[in-house]
Every structure is written in structure tokens, then in C-alpha cells.
């Protein structure tokens, strides 16, 4: 399997087990990735763990949704809650020309995520996220 990068970062939004496992795989393969969070506390915790860069977004204040200083390619959002996933989608759509993936455990809201900018909505309850490597290499 060949994972190529164009110099941009894969932006990953998650605090759940599937997303953390995915970040571990990206890290082990030396793939450039950044973590999207809306919590200063989580950002500090991630940085203490050596997970950098992080992109902090204020999910309440749209005027604060500035394009990050790092180039963003693909975006992978692991659904944690409907409101948070929707806010992340609204924030990141202007940050990238790359595909935006939402990994959801609920198949009921696929259309809404697509309308908010998701390129692909993947329904998965499986804790194994290795299937995303094939998607993220495209």
C-alpha cells in the first residue's frame, strides 16, 4: 500500500477510540496529520502527548473560523455528536479542496452531513479503522 502526501496535512477530528487508533496508524506511517478540536483543554492534553499540530476552532463563533496556518488536504471527522460534527463540517469546508469524510455510527443523518459539505459519509460501528487508509490515500 502506498500512502502519498502532497505536503498537506490530513485533518482528523476525534476523541473517540476509532479516531485515536486511526491517528496512531497515521503517526506510525509518518503521515502528516493535525487534530481538530474545539477545546483548549484537549488541545493542551494532545500537545502534552506530543500530538501536534492541533487546530483549535471555536464552534460557536463563526467569525473565528480562520483558515489554519498549515495546509489542509483531506479531512476525516469521526462523529462524536450531531451538533459537534455539523459545526466541524461548517468550519472546515472552506479550509480545503480535498475530500471531507465523516465516519458515523448512525446511518440516519447521511444526507444532512452531505448538505453541510461532507464528500463521503461512512457508516461504521467497527472499532477497526484500517479501511480508512485506502480512502485517505486517494
Provide keyphrases for this structure.
138 residues, alpha/beta, Rossmann fold, 6 strands
Question: Which helices and strands occur, and which strands form pairs?
Answer:
Blueprint: E1 9-13, H1 17-28, E2 33-37, H2 40-48, E3 54-56, E4 72-78, H3 82-92, E5 100-104, H4 110-115, E6 120-123, H5 131-136
Parallel strand pairs: 1-2, 1-4, 2-3, 4-5, 5-6
Describe this structure in words.
Helix content is 32%, strand content 21%. With 138 residues, the protein is of the alpha/beta class. It has helices spanning 17-28, 40-48, 82-92, 110-115, 131-136, and strands at 9-13, 33-37, 54-56, 72-78, 100-104, 120-123. The protein starts with 8 loop residues before the first strand and ends with a helix. The chain has a single domain (9-136), classed as 3-Layer(aba) Sandwich (Rossmann fold), CATH 3.40.50. It contains 5 helices and 6 strands.
Amino acid at each position: 500500500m502506498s500512502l502519498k502526501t502532497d505536503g498537506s496535512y490530513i485533518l482528523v477530528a476525534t476523541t473517540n477510540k476509532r479516531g485515536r487508533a486511526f491517528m496512531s496508524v497515521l503517526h506510525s506511517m509518518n503521515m502528516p496529520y493535525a487534530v481538530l478540536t474545539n477545546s483548549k483543554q484537549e488541545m493542551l492534553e494532545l500537545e502534552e502527548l506530543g500530538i501536534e499540530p492541533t487546530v483549535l476552532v471555536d464552534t460557536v463563533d463563526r467569525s473565528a473560523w480562520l483558515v489554519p496556518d498549515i495546509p489542509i488536504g483531506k479531512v476525516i471527522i469521526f462523529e462524536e455528536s450531531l451538533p459537534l460534527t455539523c459545526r466541524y463540517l461548517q468550519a472546515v469546508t472552506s479550509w480545503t479542496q480535498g475530500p471531507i469524510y465523516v465516519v458515523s455510527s448512525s446511518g440516519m443523518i447521511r444526507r444532512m452531513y452531505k448538505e453541510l459539505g461532507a464528500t463521503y459519509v461512512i457508516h461504521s460501528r467497527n472499532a477497526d479503522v484500517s479501511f480508512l487508509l485506502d480512502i485517505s490515500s486517494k
